[in-house]
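Here is the promised in-class demo. Please do not try to memorize the tokens; focus on the logic of going from shape to residues.
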């Protein structure tokens, strides 16, 4: 039974994978909120335009979300590492909750400090902010899952 802890390289790789997936999910989510708002204003929004917009946002908005999510995810995972032994909650769930709260705080700060209009349109509503926080939480869950040692994963 191999109970070795993940190496530093594995942790960094897991962080990068989680960060990229969370940024991509957030970008797609942001696109959906924007496209739904646009669709409400026009008679018909062709599916091709919908797909093009999602693809465009993955290229242009995902890097912005990556920059926002990187410190949020890193600080959240550090907090999990420090708090988990003290409060004895499953690391996966603790990471999900802390990361969601951290992104909601970050979005609030961004909306407060960024000039109008809101930098991230989806964060104008509670539903949009929560949706983006869930995307960040998915990144945290991916990181925890990828870095679990074999003993924790098996039992």
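The designed amino acids, position by position:
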């Amino acid at each position: 039974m191999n109970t070795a802890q993940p190496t530093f390289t594995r942790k960094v790789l897991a962080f990068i994978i989680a960060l990229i997936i969370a940024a991509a999910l957030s970008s797609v989510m942001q696109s959906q909120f924007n496209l739904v708002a646009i669709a409400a204003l026009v008679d018909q929004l062709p599916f091709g335009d919908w797909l093009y917009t999602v693809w465009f946002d993955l290229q242009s908005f995902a890097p912005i979300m990556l920059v926002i999510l990187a410190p949020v995810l890193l600080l959240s995972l550090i907090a999990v590492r420090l708090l988990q032994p003290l409060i004895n909650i499953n690391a996966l769930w603790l990471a999900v909750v802390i990361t969601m709260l951290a992104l909601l705080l970050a979005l609030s700060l961004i909306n407060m400090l960024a000039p109008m209009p809101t930098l991230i349109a989806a964060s104008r509503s509670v539903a949009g902010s929560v949706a983006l926080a869930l995307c960040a939480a998915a990144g945290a869950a991916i990181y925890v899952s990828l870095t679990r040692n074999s003993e924790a994963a098996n039992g």
